[in-house]
């Protein structure tokens, strides 16, 4: 079973990428958010991989830039009715930390924003993820009859920048991709220091205009 690939990023498509590892090209299916954060073709890339086998399609690899994203993906796959396509769609709109927050708030509407995920499946996802770890965040179920107020996670620069782009009419997947690319570019420019929100929004708008 393949758990990680490190090699030269040869190609990037709409739903997959090709990674050349010592002369062997691996086709890796990825969500839009992951594809948008990959380096430029020709550069070295590392992806954490979930391997799956089916009689119809044979081996299939699904790639993520972090272990938390891969862990959240496999947790989603354990839910009845959630296949790889739906799991990737959920993580495109809700990275692990944000998904955990949505589960804690029982915010099925946030989950239903994922492409191909209807209200019934969103409710099942929120219900079954209660108490399960999603990356480094998990929310334990409360005892019967006990009511616990769970504060939502503090807003992140990524979330605020995405919200600003959504307010300008940008599609959510495109907004997240632009913000992720902007953060990578700004952190490289600033030597790893965190960028301020206005700079992130401006850089994301420049990414959208490319």
From TrEMBL:
UniProt superkingdom: Bacteria
GO (cellular component) term, any one: Holliday junction helicase complex
Subcellular location: Cytoplasm
One Pfam family of this chain: HHH_5
Domain Holliday junction DNA helicase RuvA C-terminal: 158-208
Gene3D superfamilies linked to this entry: 5' to 3' exonuclease, C-terminal subdomain, DNA helicase RuvA subunit, C-terminal domain, Nucleic acid-binding proteins
Main location: cytoplasm
GO molecular function: ATP binding; four-way junction DNA binding; four-way junction helicase activity
Gene Ontology process terms (BP): DNA recombination; DNA repair
Keywords, comma-separated and alphabetical: Cytoplasm, DNA damage, DNA recombination, DNA repair, DNA-binding
Quaternary structure, from the entry: Homotetramer. Forms an RuvA(8)-RuvB(12)-Holliday junction (HJ) complex. HJ DNA is sandwiched between 2 RuvA tetramers; dsDNA enters through RuvA and exits via RuvB. An RuvB hexamer assembles on each DNA strand where it exits the tetramer. Each RuvB hexamer is contacted by two RuvA subunits (via domain III) on 2 adjacent RuvB subunits; this complex drives branch migration. In the full resolvosome a probable DNA-RuvA(4)-RuvB(12)-RuvC(2) complex forms which resolves the HJ.
UniProt record similarity statement: Belongs to the RuvA family.
Stated role: The RuvA-RuvB-RuvC complex processes Holliday junction (HJ) DNA during genetic recombination and DNA repair, while the RuvA-RuvB complex plays an important role in the rescue of blocked DNA replication forks via replication fork reversal (RFR). RuvA specifically binds to HJ cruciform DNA, conferring on it an open structure. The RuvB hexamer acts as an ATP-dependent pump, pulling dsDNA into and through the RuvAB complex. HJ branch migration allows RuvC to scan DNA until it finds its consensus sequence, where it cleaves and resolves the cruciform DNA.
Domain free text: Has three domains with a flexible linker between the domains II and III and assumes an 'L' shape. Domain III is highly mobile and contacts RuvB.
Record protein name field: Holliday junction branch migration complex subunit RuvA
Species this protein is from: Brevundimonas intermedia
Protein encoded by which gene: ruvA
């Amino acid at each position: 079973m393949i758990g990680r690939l490190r090699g030269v990023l040869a190609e990037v498509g709409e739903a997959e990428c090709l990674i050349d590892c010592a002369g062997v090209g691996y086709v890796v299916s990825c969500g839009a958010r992951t594809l948008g954060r990959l380096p430029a073709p020709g550069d070295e890339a590392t992806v954490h991989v979930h391997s799956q086998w089916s009689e119809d399609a044979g081996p299939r690899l699904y790639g993520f830039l972090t272990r938390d994203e891969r862990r959240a993906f496999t947790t989603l796959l354990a839910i009845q009715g959630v296949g790889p396509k739906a799991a990737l769609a959920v993580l495109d709109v809700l990275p692990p930390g944000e998904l955990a927050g949505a589960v804690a708030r029982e915010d099925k509407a946030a989950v239903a924003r994922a492409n191909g995920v209807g209200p019934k499946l969103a409710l099942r996802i929120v219900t079954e993820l209660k108490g399960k770890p999603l990356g480094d965040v998990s929310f334990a179920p409360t005892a019967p009859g006990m009511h616990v107020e769970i504060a939502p996670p503090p807003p992140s620069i990524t979330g605020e920048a995405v919200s600003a782009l959504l307010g300008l009419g940008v599609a959510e997947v495109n907004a997240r991709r632009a913000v992720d690319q902007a953060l990578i570019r700004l952190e490289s420019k600033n030597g790893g220091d965190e960028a301020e929100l206005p700079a992130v929004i401006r850089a994301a708008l420049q990414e959208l205009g490319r």
